[in-house]
Amino acid sequence: MSPDQALRIAYSSGLDLILISPGAQPPVCRIADWGKYKFEQDKREKEAKKKQNTVEVKEVQLTCRIDTHDFDTKVRNAVRFLGDGNKVKVVLRFRGREMSHQQLGRDILDRFKAATAQAGTVDREPVLDGRTITMIISPLREKDKKEMAKQAAAAAAAAASASAGAAQTPENPDKGAEN
Question: Structural domains in the chain?
């Protein structure tokens, strides 16, 4: 249909000719009320925006002299953040002479990585930048969670079979004997 003919049909029925897809060959148009079309388009965009999941980056700060209870609290907060679907930026700051003991900081970050392994995966490995070491952990996807659950079930089954096998073997008679 020619554009002039489409315009005549649209205006005769009291509607507008709306260009839907200008890049297509031939261009795609629709005969509709412009106000109603715009309202429905805005409504669809708002609905899509509501369903959109925004990922925030939460920060957890550590030092290389952190105590176990404080470390556990930081891990618990990071696991909660990961459970909410947010990324976690772990920042370990060195102060003063602590810079000469960077391996202690890396060990703490390795412990942190192991403690949050059930809730997230490391996006960016620990990197030294000035006086800070930074690591980013992102939450596990559903596929990763299922895979981890399968591995945990397999490990539990292996441990159960190993303990059942150990219970059936006779004890070593020389075990408690003294020479």
Answer: 3-47 (3.10.20.80), 57-142 (3.30.110.10)
